[in-house]
């Protein structure tokens, strides 16, 4: 597969990121940079730039003289990510509901529709679409630092989202929870938004504790 030079670094980043999220790149094994560069038809310089960016996002780790590795999923990391989300995201989404414009509301509806389509037809996009939906509920708040923190946590949570949705029936439950959350958000019911989102994030964390302790 050959890449367009104009957006070379960004395309490499996106491709490798998708492979990490989907599990195509195995954990705790060194990434074979020569083979990956040959496969993508690129030099190692933009590849290393993309790998370094993925390390900054917390998806990779590096070791001297050994290169880059996919970080392992862990119960401790999941606990920290989801506890931080619980501390920040429900309140932010609730306050955003109060000030959302008609365009913001349309964007949130579209984001949930895109998530549902991905769940039905493009499972490899579910984690990304899930992040987009949750961020659409926070964006209208206009609090740049809060948004950046939540976005960072959403990026780190994506691999856990994929893990969480593996058992049968989880996707249906997630859809129902997302729809109830969106309905409350569109109605500007701040208390229900905060409550639904707290329950949604909390239930996911409970499930992950069980899954990751096996």
Written description of the protein model:
The chain has nine helices and two strands; from the N terminus they run αααββαααααα. With 214 residues, the protein is mostly helical. It folds into two domains: 8-70, Winged helix-like DNA-binding domain superfamily/Winged helix DNA-binding domain (Arc Repressor Mutant, subunit A); 75-213, Four Helix Bundle (Hemerythrin (Met), subunit A), CATH 1.20.120.530. A two-stranded antiparallel ribbon has the order 1-2. A hairpin with a 3-residue loop joins β1 and β2 (67-70). α4 (75-99) packs across α7 (144-164). Residues 1-5 have low confidence and may be disordered.
Largest sheet: 2 strands, antiparallel
CATH class of the largest domain: Mainly Alpha
CATH superfamily of the largest domain: GntR ligand-binding domain-like
Q: Any idea what the radius of gyration is?
A: 18 Å
Q: What would you say the CATH architecture of the largest domain is?
A: Up-down Bundle
CATH topology of the largest domain: Four Helix Bundle (Hemerythrin (Met), subunit A)
Helicity range of the residues? over 70%
Overall SS class: mainly alpha
Number of domains: 2
Percent in strands: under 5%
Number of helices: 9
The ordered string of helix (H) and strand (E) elements is HHHEEHHHHHH
InterPro entries: GntR_C, TF_FadR/GntR_C, Tscrpt_reg_HTH_GntR, WH-like_DNA-bd_sf, WH_DNA-bd_sf
Keywords: DNA-binding, Transcription, Transcription regulation
Pfam families: FCD, GntR
Domain HTH gntR-type: 6-73
């Amino acid at each position: 597969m050959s890449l367009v030079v104009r957006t070379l670094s960004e395309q490499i980043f996106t491709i490798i990121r998708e492979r990490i999220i989907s599990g195509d790149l195995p954990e705790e094994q060194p990434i074979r940079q020569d083979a990956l560069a040959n496969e993508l038809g690129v030099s190692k310089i933009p590849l290393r730039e993309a790998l370094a960016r993925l390390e900054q996002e917390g998806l990779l780790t590096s070791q001297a003289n050994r290169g880059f590795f996919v970080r392992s999923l862990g119960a401790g990391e999941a606990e920290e990510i989801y506890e931080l989300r619980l501390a920040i995201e429900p309140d932010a989404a609730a306050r955003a509901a109060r000030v959302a414009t008609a365009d913001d509301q349309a964007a949130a509806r579209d984001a949930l529709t895109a998530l549902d389509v991905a769940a039905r037809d493009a499972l490899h996009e579910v984690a990304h679409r899930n992040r987009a939906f949750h961020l659409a509920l926070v964006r209208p708040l206009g609090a740049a630092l809060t948004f950046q923190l939540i976005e960072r946590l959403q990026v780190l949570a994506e691999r856990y989202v994929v893990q969480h949705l593996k058992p049968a029936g989880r996707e249906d439950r997630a859809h129902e929870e997302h729809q109830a959350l969106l309905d409350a958000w569109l109605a500007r019911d701040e208390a229900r938004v905060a409550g639904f989102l707290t329950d949604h994030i909390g239930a996911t964390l409970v499930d992950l504790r069980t899954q990751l302790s096996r």
